[in-house]
Amino acid sequence: MSAPLVKGWCPGAHRPMLSGDGLVVRVRPFRGEVTARQALALCALARRFGNGMIDLTSRANLQIRGVTEGDHPALLAALDALGLIDADPGVESRRNVLMTPLWAPGDLAARLHDALLAALPGLPDLPQKMGFAVDCSDRRYLSDASADFRIETAHDGSLILRADGAILGRKVTEGDAMEALAEMARWFTDTGGAETGRMARHLRTQALPATWQVAQPAGTATLTPGPTEAGTILGVPFGALEADALAALVETSGATALRPATGRTLVLQGAHIDTAPGLVTRPGDPAMHAHACPGAPFCPQATVETRPLAARLAAHVPGDLHVSGCAKGCAHPRAAATTLVGREGRFDLVKGGAPWDAPVKTGLDPQALDPKDL
């Protein structure tokens, strides 16, 4: 069975998406960072206009759920006053930029990020879900994240531009990287890429110019919970943050900023802590190997609750666990060691596959489900 077609768009602040509990309003932090002041204000807005939770998305964005249509204009005005959104909805829809999480002010990554934002208006129209990654630390932290155009460090420490889905990249410099990016974007649209929607999908049938495939990218790394020179890396189970708890953490820790990151992690800048209620501060926690979408009643596609079951099973299931409210598999749209897929109030079990693959068991009762059944 092929993967189900996920329709719609990536919700933003100006153009939210309607879910089962109201509007989903997404904030794309500039440079992948919100200051402590902005973080506290965002928590207050989540309590005032949303359901009191802040989601951390797979693209390292933050979103408030449960917003009513009547409250949306006031929330939008508050986000604008905080400097958290673009004033122009058209600019915001194109600013799908992932930033390497350990950048420093004024470094190469920060300069390239600013150059990319300046170049975005001049790029050809691209499909809504396409995005960019600025991943030029000593190692690549965004290799598993969703991005179509990747500005990365090469294995020899130089700079490359790599199309997602290609093994090798094109050598560039800081001075000509944006010109090369524009050329690649034009190639994508000129060769019919808009019909496929994503770069990696387009490359299955369309070959890149040979000169764009000459340089090996640097090795990869992942953020793991624990101390880092700039602060503390925190794991966020299921990407769900309680606004009250997050605000208390920012205030008591003395953090200067938050950097949402991929892999459901969060960098607490300028603060070193050992514990954080509801968050993971040490590597090896089984909750970081469990994936679950909001589920019912928050998503109209779901007929089952997901996260309570995932939390109950996580420590007892070897390998990655994915509890999905439906066959779309939004929380983890790929294979996992154990996948439970909601269907008509019960679960189907997929082993070593994706939510849309053939199950080995069907009709499992979530109330009676035992880890030994998996």
Protein model, in words:
With 374 residues, the chain is α+β, with helices and mostly antiparallel strands. Helix content is 22%, strand content 24%. It contains nine helices and 20 strands.
Summarize, please.
The protein has about 375 residues and is an alpha+beta fold.
With helices defined by DSSP (H or I, 4 residues minimum), what is the helix count? 9
> How many strands, which pairing sense, and closed or not: the largest β-sheet?
5 strands, antiparallel
Shape: globular
Overall structural class, as computed from helix and strand content, comes to alpha+beta
The SSE string, one letter per element, is EEEHEEHHEHEEEEHHHEEEHEEEHEEEE
Q: What percentage of the residues does DSSP assign to strands (E)? A: 15-25%
Please compute the radius of gyration using only Cα atoms.
Answer: 21 Å
| Poorly predicted regions | 4-8
Strand order of the largest sheet: 1-2-5-4-13
Average per-residue pLDDT, rounded, comes to 93
Number of strands: 20
Q: Level of helix content?
A: 10-25%
Our measurement of the CA-to-CA distance between the termini, rounded to an integer number of angstroms, reads 22 Å
